[in-house]
Amino acid sequence: MAPPITAGADGSPESLAAVGWAAREAVLRGLPLRIVHAWLWQPLDVPIVQDKETQALSAESLVREAGAAVSARYPDLPVTTEVVPDTPVAALLGEAERSRMLVLGSRGHGAIVGFLVGSYGQQVIASAGCPVVSVRAPAADAEAPKEPQPRDGDEIVVGQQGSAEDSAAVLGFAFETAAAHGAPVRAVRAWSLPPFFAYSPGTLQLVDEAGGLEPYEKQALAEALAPWRERFPDVAVTEHVEIGSAGQVLLSAVSRAQLLVVGRRARRSAIGKRIGSVAHASLHHAPCPVVVVPHT
Known about the structure:
10 helices; 10 strands; alpha/beta; about 20% strand; single chain; elongated; about 40% helix
């Protein structure tokens, strides 16, 4: 069986929105859906009533009801549910290892919440081995996900950085998603002047006389897109090259986006794994769902 799309559920409106988005995506991609809830019995050293069996039944009921709601709406969609006996981060990272993508809910334009509080969400995004989707659906849509409907003009916006090899995983995800949705792709490449130009007026003048650096950036974007245009000839593509910081340029391009796709280098820094400044800005400020795709 193909790897599933996995959604985390905790009963909150945000997680129900994530389940709804994941279900629609699974239908469009022809993939199974898996709904999980992380629950681990941890007795407390405090004088309060603790009922392990009741809490376990509540957790089972939560995922079972989420699965039943999805199955009622999409009767042909294969759906499995499970309560994972582990801490949230460990459970979700384990699910990521065997999933096509991991879908989590988030609230507003702040940090990821739900059963991921504070740094937990960033830990999952920074360490997951598969793409992680942060869904910002309105609470009104979370209770009753609608049938997947094509939305003309709603773009899949993807940030392209570095060489064609650097961005292959990110572009591949964007084009696959666009093909499934029948949507166009807007590929965005941001660039800035190297710092030494600020101290070399003569060199900057020569660059300007040669047409500036933008033609080189446009060529780099075109080369990165070429294999994906060939593989997905029916996907319309807009090439967007703009000077400025990558985060700001991307966020200015998502006004008509149904999804923003950004990359994360899958490597450990001196202070541990990080999601990167572009992904961080996108997760906190983009008005649409954001996918963070790990790449080497």
